[in-house]
Specification:
Distance between the termini: 52 Å
Oligomer: single chain
Radius of gyration: 24 Å
Number of helices: 11
CATH topology of the largest domain: Metallo-beta-lactamase, Chain A
Order of helices and strands: EEEHEHHEHEEEEEEHHEEHEHEHHEHE
């Protein structure tokens, strides 16, 4: 697919039948966000060590069991990893930490901050301190965006899968982009001064900050002072819609769920969304609170993403994904992406393991 993202680089570390695993790398920082963590033994350690935050949809095994691998590869790094998910996540993380002995914990070990997202939008945080053998301490509650910096923000909503399940949206931060035609119309000339304005933009202090700039008064160049850099920027900027990613998995098809998703991920650049069953098995999809292809198509018609990546196909169809893809009918303007059926290596048989030899 073309790269419509300025800051984000999404990588789906799974095949259609593997456990969902979406990594979003933030290009300017080299850091990453992870969405769900089922089976993930195939990830290189450098991938684990790049992760700053993890967003769990729900605690079914195929979406959560890989947290042990995250802990294994991250616990001795001097940093704090944020983990987000529905209510009950903190207790589950506490149980994982309690499974192991931490008598060798050291002062340089890192922490895990577990953030439970409640239906009313409140986020309750608990810090598990690595240097203290992952002892827990409450950090209180807050409202607002789940996670963010100047390059991105992450938001979410509760959906239903017989249990609460989180859907997420990642929005790129606004970029500093200028419009040559608008600059010419305003008589504003380019130059080194733009570096100062860009720094004010990225520092978030444009409003009220003066900036000097060269101005073409009709044949001669003179220096002007704009008392408010933000006001000048609005006159010469180029308007671009920031790119976005939606992550949706394990939801029942209901008007309530669809309404919530419409409010969260409608019109995203890339929608990563489950499509578990064929249309003929809509009843099975309904009982297990998953989507069949008919419902997937209806959802696409409501949400209208630019690109969609179907994923998390039912293992019922492990012989091949083509029957499901044949039933996917996107509306105009929506491009369907294709990935391999599997990325994870197959299990070894005992006959394939090299035997010890005498030396």
């Amino acid at each position: 697919m073309p790269k419509p993202f300025r800051y984000l680089e999404p990588t789906f570390f799974a095949g259609l039948f593997d456990d969902p695993l979406l990594l979003v790398r933030v290009r300017p920082t080299g850091r990453a966000l992870l969405f769900d963590c089922g089976k993930m033994h195939h990830l290189a350690k450098r991938v684990y060590t790049s992760i700053d935050a993890i967003f769990i949809s729900h605690a079914h095994m195929d979406h959560f069991m890989g947290m042990d691998s995250v802990i294994r590869h991250s616990h001795a790094s001097p940093r704090t990893i944020d983990v987000f998910g529905p209510p009950g996540l903190s207790e589950r993380m506490a149980s994982k930490f309690a499974c192991y002995d931490w008598n060798l914990a050291d002062t340089f070990w890192g922490n895990f901050r577990v953030n439970e997202i409640w239906a009313n939008g409140r986020v309750a945080s608990m810090l598990y301190s690595g240097p203290e053998a992952f002892a827990a301490s409450c950090e209180g509650e807050r409202n607002g965006v789940l996670y963010g910096n100047r390059h991105l923000t992450v938001s979410g909503t509760h959906c239903e899968h017989h249990i609460p399940v989180m859907a997420y949206r990642v929005d790129e931060g606004e970029a500093f982009v200028l419009d040559d035609e608008r600059m010419a119309a305003e008589g504003v000339k380019k130059g080194e001064w733009l570096k100062e304005m860009e720094k004010l933009f990225h520092d978030g202090v444009m409003e009220g900050s003066p900036v000097r700039y060269p101005y073409d008064s009709g044949g001669s160049i003179e220096e002007k002072v704009a008392p408010d850099a933000a006001e000048l920027y609005q006159r010469i900027r180029k308007f671009e819609e920031p790119a976005s990613i939606g992550y949706v998995t394990d939801i029942g098809y209901s008007e309530e769920n669809v309404t919530k998703l419409s409010g969260l991920v409608q019109g995203v650049t890339l929608l990563v969304c489950e499509c578990a069953f064929l249309a003929s098995e809509s009843k099975k999809a309904g009982l297990s609170r998953h989507l069949c292809t008919t419902q997937f198509n209806q959802l696409l018609d409501r949400l209208r993403p630019r690109y969609v990546l179907p994923m998390h196909f039912s293992k019922t169809y492990q012989r091949g994904s083509e029957p499901l893809y044949r039933e996917i009918e996107p509306p105009p303007g929506v491009t369907v992406l294709k990935i391999p059926d599997r990325l994870t290596p197959r299990p070894l048989m005992e006959s394939e393991v090299p035997r010890p030899v005498e030396i």
